[in-house]
Amino acid sequence: MAGSNVRRDRPATSNRISAYLLHHLKSLLFSLDKIYQAPTTTIMTVAVIGITLSLPGGFYLFLKNIDAISGDFRSSSQISLYLGLDVSDKKARALEKQITEMADVTSTRFISRESSLEEFRQNSGFGKSIDTLSSNPLPHTIIVEPVEGDTFMVRNLLNTLEAMPEVDIAKLDTEWLERLYTIIEIAKRSVIIVTILFAFAVLLIIGNTIRLDIQNRYQEIIVTKLIGATDAFIRRPFLYGGIWYGLLGGIISWLIVEIGYLAIAGPLDRLNLLYQSDMNLITFSFHDFIILITSSTLLGLAGSWIAVARHLNQIEPT
């Protein structure tokens, strides 16, 4: 007898699951049909969501490109050592040999005072003025190429070289890049703040759209509740409507950003020809695209859930 009850329960459970999944499918298609039947509202809502999400997306790609460009310079950091004016040529070359034998140094290049003065005379345009000088004001210079490593290692090497008595000034040529990285870090946090603010804006847009949809279907909801429908049953089409809005808005934002970056690809190619460089724009990867679409869809679901939870409970048959 017990086995017979179990067998009867299994089809009943299976039927409930099938009915549950079938209603989800019907709600999904019903919400899509509602969006299709109101093209003006749909286009306006999706366009606003797309434009809103394209701003943080565009900032994200901009920082991603700047980070990639600055990363190429980081690997070629150099330390310039300007020796004292009283250091002789022989002593300067001996110092260069000593530095070359250091474990953290890849290579060195010695620039004599005479070479520096001659290069300055040719490139500065002040050749006649330089000829009037009674003595050479430029020091011997040693260019040190550190072993590739982290910033901490390079800084330690800089401090070691700066402490040498023959060295007057030790300059890390990528100090400007460290400042740039600091600015980029500030910009990244600013983008996070902007993204959060625009995410709230998307929640408000979708929430307001769903609220208007609930008000337009007020009588339909009343009748549905009178025949015994639960709040979960009534809620599902609205939730799927929010998901559609979020999904379509995410796709529009992706298209806006991609078209914007394609628009500047031509001028960038001309800039590469002028400067004989090889800069390439980084656009959304597949991983970035999935994150954008997933985030926009979840925002749509969250916005519709908030609107439905707030307004659906206020509608009760009298």
Strands of the widest sheet, in order across it, are 2-3-1-4
Biggest sheet character: 4 strands, antiparallel
Rounded radius of gyration (Å) = 34 Å
Strand-and-helix sequence, N→C? Answer: HHEHEHHEHEHHHHH
Number of helices: 11
Summarize the structure.
The protein has two domains: 187 residues, no CATH class; 96 residues, Alpha-Beta Plaits (2-Layer Sandwich).
Features:
alpha+beta, 2 domains, Alpha-Beta Plaits, 4-stranded antiparallel sheet
Protein model, in words:
The structure is a single chain. The protein is built from 11 helices and 4 strands, in the order ααβαβααβαβααααα. The protein is α+β, with helices and mostly antiparallel strands. The protein has 2 domains: 23-73 and 179-314, no CATH class; 78-173, Alpha-Beta Plaits. Strands 2-3-1-4 form a 4-stranded antiparallel β-sheet. It is elongated. The mean pLDDT is 80.
Topology:
Elements: H1 2-37, H2 39-74, E1 79-83, H3 89-100, E2 105-111, H4 113-124, H5 127-131, E3 141-146, H6 151-162, E4 167-172, H7 175-216, H8 218-226, H9 231-263, H10 265-275, H11 286-311
Antiparallel strand pairs: 1-3, 1-4, 2-3
